[in-house]
Queue: 3 jobs
Job 1
Amino acid sequence: MIDFRPFYQQIATSNLSAWLETLPLQLKRWEKQTHGEYAKWAKVIDFLPQLSAERIDLKQAVRAESDTPLSEGQRQRLIYHLKQLMPWRKGPYHLHGVHIDCEWRSDFKWERVLPHLAPLRDRTVLDVGCGSGYHMWRMLGEGAATVIGIDPTELFLCQFEAVRKLLNNDRRANLIPLGIEEMQALGVFDTVFSMGVLYHRKSPLDHLTQLRSQLRPGGELVLETLVVEGDVNTVLVPADRYAKMKNVYFIPSVDCLINWLQKTGFHNVRCVDVATTSLQEQRKTEWLENESLIDFLDPQDQSKTVEGYPAPQRAVILANK
């Protein structure tokens, strides 16, 4: 099982030390109710070889390379172990000659977001709903001092720890298996990311308030979410599913979303990017057994989902506390 004690030691002498009042007990409770496959997934990390990477690139990609390439047999064994952690949704990763071609080209999103951010150098960053942690590594590539991701999904935690092991056990990034609603209001993060989360929340204003409570005064929120066309009063509330997802509750227009952020106390709110999700950005690969975007769109009209709603369009909104 994954040991969180090194993380506790890390934050004990930092401005995150107050988290130790609640976090260890929360994670003990979490361990008692984990997914039935968690033990199997955690063992995969133990089975991964201890490999030393002489070259690590987190600036242009998430890549680790050794001076001594793996033999084909070693590479196939590494692929075998990593495929025990499928589906791999966010990536890609290039690790010791193995290309994990994930469902999402998350580097596309990062390239849209990065030019607009306050510089991440030396910042303490929180990534809410971080998945397997792809963007966390890219944040380190931009010079962030500490990156903490939170996501309650056990598979994502094990994927993150597998990648960490293949990146020379880099401890500057950590994934904690909690939801944002379980975090105490720390109010210390320089930058908080929430990408691909808001539309999964039954109460979006509560989510925005929770994000704000984690920021220091002047800190920056990076919010990326589904949006629809419309004015300040436009919100799509899917009757059942949206793009075959049953846990989509509210999809606002950009103007409506800006209004929500202002109502929850943010200022300097601005939309910096709007993009329609392409079939190149989200697609089936050999690292994903499930359906993907092509299956979620109307085969006769790809501007609509199979339910008849507007096809996925995503906006990036920045705001400050």
Job 2
Amino acid sequence: MKEIYHVKRSAVMRVETHSAQDTQALAASLAPVLPAGTWIRLEGDLGAGKTTFTQGLGKALGIARAIKSPTYTIVKEYDLEGQAAPRLIHIDAYRLEEGGADTVDLASYRQQGDLVLVEWAQFIETELPTAYLDLALSYGQEVDDRVLTIQWVGGQEPEWLSQWSKEVSDHAR
């Protein structure tokens, strides 16, 4: 039987998953430790699992409705009942490649303590906070395999991330 994930730890954490369900389970394991106000930059090719990761995190945070990529709407907001953060904000900045980030009030999400996940963040780079979790997804060897490269950007890695990383590593053994 294949393990759910395989982890290599250093300043950068590398996790391999073997199905969409495994990727969602990894995201769900992050939910209990993720503090309000955290931004996650999701990087990866089309179909690499950015929205799949968001779905796993959202479900673990109690979001019952379907979470789909906000490709055409750019931003989707989900209320979080009984969580530290008031909302989960899912941004797909792909359509902002030619500009227009100023039409989306990204600063308000920082001020309100929302959890924010941004796909295609390279198109709104100047709008990102100074510190965030960078999560890059890429294809693995098999069709359903994904490699997630996770690191903190912008200063000292927070204790919650170190703890989660250790828990994921312990789970993989």
Job 3
Amino acid sequence: MREIVVIGIGAGNPQHITLEGVAALERADVVVALDKGDVKDDLMGVRREILRAHNPDIAVIAVADPPRDRSPRDYAAEVHRWHDQRAQLLEATIVENTEPDGVAAFLVWGDPSLYDSTLRIIERFTTPVTVTVIPGITAVQALTAAHKILLNRVGEEIVITTGRNVAAGARHRNCVVMLDGGAAWLESVTPHTYIWWGAYVGTPSEVLIHGYVSEIGAELAELKKKLRAEHGWIMDIYLLRELDSSS
């Protein structure tokens, strides 16, 4: 039976991959990757460096990522349809490029368990496969390490959510925000809201900013636009925390 190894490769630093991940990559026959069409040289460079260090001769098969509606009326239904298409393409690619007992690897940014669709897509395969998941360092961990802060506070919860939810009004005392295509921090602010923000965390292009949203929020939104224009892409993450008298 074919094996699929889903390897968390961290937030951008090639040294984030664990020894377990290295061992899994060394025994893989092929790496399968979705090509999103807008080639991101920085990210591809990190992948190439990882492969060069741990399995330089492995074949890499790129699969064109099917398009999806970014502003659908029914978001969940559109994502479900998109995942079905992805599953069909990836399954066919794996079957065509591996032996019945071969090993195919997916390299996942951060950790496969956090805001990543790879495992959901594999669940849609009709071809029998075994799945091995290798955890990785998340962007959440990379962000807090870079800012030298604790993720949690004594006795309080920590929420991890998306920019879409924050923009829609979600409010929490301690909140990590991922997948923010805009500047959702501007929609969730009190005089006490503090932000620790990072872009390209773990890469040579890393940018870190922190301060009260009321003071730096608008300037940070402009910086994000500028960085996206310079690089052609951006991946950012941030922690919002209420620093009031009960902190």
